[in-house]
Write a structure and sequence with these properties.
Collagenase (Catalytic Domain), about 45% helix, 4 strands, alpha/beta, 5 helices
Length: about 150
């Protein structure tokens, strides 16, 4: 994808401690999206548990805050894709999961950004076949940035 551009917009409305820098979040998103072979943009919104729970309830019908929600862009037929979509990441959930799973917080944040971006470009893990495609790609992208395999047993 030489010469192509991936734009990343980051908004943190969480007031949570330990949220990675905009530079890091953008770096992780770019790594995933560039690997997808397409140019475009993504918006990443960091939220608190109340907003994360409300969005998860509204769009996924689950009454709890989840780590990352992906909202792929839905453009009319014939309109060239310039935006991948939006990610919503719940800072408190990511921090809690990292602690529970014995992972470095930064590595878990990187994983959630990469994971969400891959959802935006069409990857899923709803069944074993899909997971067998998505998870090794996540691991490869993260390893390229120096992070451990997020699926390795702890």
């Amino acid at each position: 994808m030489a010469g192509e551009v991936v734009e990343v917009y980051v908004e943190d409305v969480s007031d949570a401690p330990g949220v990675p820098s905009t530079v890091d979040i953008a770096r992780w998103a770019r790594a995933a999206l560039i690997r997808s072979g397409r140019a475009g943009g993504v918006a990443v919104r960091i939220v608190d548990e109340a907003e994360g729970r409300a969005l998860n309830a509204q769009y996924r019908h689950n009454d709890y805050a989840t780590n990352v929600l992906s909202f792929p862009a839905e453009l009319p037929v014939g309109v060239p894709l310039q935006e991948f979509g939006d990610l919503v990441i719940c800072a408190a959930v990511v921090a809690r999961e990292a602690a529970e799973q014995g992972k470095a917080v930064e590595a878990h944040w990187a994983h959630m950004v990469v994971h969400g971006c891959l959802h935006l470009v069409g990857y899923d893990h709803g069944d074993d076949r899909q997971a067998a495609q998505m998870e090794p790609l996540e691991t490869e992208i993260l390893a390229g940035m120096g992070y451990p395999d997020p699926y390795a047993p702890r």
